[in-house]
Amino acid sequence: MLDRSLLRDVSLVCLASGVVGVSFGAIAVAGGLPVWVPVVMSLVVYAGSAQFSAVGILLAGGGPVAAAATGLLLNTRTAAFSLAVADVLGDRGRLARFAGAHLVTDETAAFALAQRDPARRRAAFWISGIGLYAVWNLCVLGGALAGSALGDTARFGLDAAFPAVLVALVLPAVREDAGVRRAALLGGAVALAVTPFVPVGVPVLLALTGLLVLGRRV
Amino acid sequence: MTAMVAAILALAVGTYAFRLVGPLLHGRVQLPDHVQRLLSAGAVVLLVALLATGALTEAGGFAEWARPAGVLTGGVLAWRRAPFVVVVLGAALTTALLRAAGVS
After folding, report:
1. Which of A32-36, A62-66, A74-78 has the highest mean pLDDT?
2. Which of A51, A125, B33, B52 has the fewest CB atoms in 10 Å of its CB?
3. Would you state the pLDDT for residue B76?
């Protein structure tokens, strides 16, 4: 039924996500936020990149509105993912559907979509979904409690971990589609160019101008 | 503090609403292909901008060399299709070692 390779991959991603979760909790608390902020945010928002950018903006003094807006904008992609896994969520009654929706992330969508057979697809989604939710929240709590004890988190190089996670996540899309690659390079360049001159959170939004060169899929 | 609670709540409610789009629309609406492509390309563009500014900038200025060097290491590992956890730890370890060696 469930092969070992799926369980191995899920465990590996859980492990990686645990490391990132610890660093998220630690960075938030070491930066001066109270422990409950990263912990509650992880439980109710549950979206790594949005949480990092929201906390980054809060710590940089960008304000709660910019933090929420940037996080929401980043999470618009979850709508596309939830459409992609809708068949997994759709046939198990209302409670499972509403609980399952909260588990839709980049990773769970990727795990589900990698399976062809509907039963395995469902299993992959729920196993990775429940596993990641538990690991992520426990590790964020651990990181937040250890935050001040860890001292200067810059020593551990955790600030380099998050951009590296993003590289790993976007690489497949950037590799296979020249239009997306063009758009992403232009968007990234725009974001970097305006960073010194505009408030925190805005550079990433302006990067969307890169979509102008998207073109058609070839 | 109230503003922070409001921000977290807004982010949580909005994110959950995005996540409900699939289950609620399932079987009812089919997004046109070019809209789907724009949505997914937009997500990639956002992530690349986030990683570029996250790797290179700090409070509106340059982030110093240790962090971009770590991200670059992670990027090379990801390009060589190294497992996710190797990418993450490779990036953090490179930056940590450079800082221990006195490179900020």
Report:
1. A32-36
2. B33
3. 96
**Any idea of the CA torsion for A22, A166, B95, A33, to the nearest 10 degrees?**
-40
E strand segments, B7-81: 57-58, 61-62
Q: Which of A78, A137, A153, A171 to mutate to test the interface with B (most CBs of B within 10 A)?
A: A78
Mean of the per-residue pLDDT values of chain B: 87
Choose between B103 and B93: higher pLDDT.
B93
User: Distance from first CA to last CA of chain B, Å, rounded?
Assistant: 33
**Taking the domains of chain B in order of start, what are their residue ranges?**
64-104
Calpha distance A151→A155 (Å, rounded): 9
Would you call A67 and B43 a contact, using CB atoms and an 8 Å cutoff? no
Sort out which chain A residues have CB atoms less than 8 A from B28's CB and list them. none
What does the mean pLDDT of chain A come to? 85
Of B11, B48, B49, which has the smallest distance from its Cβ to A72's Cβ?
Answer: B11
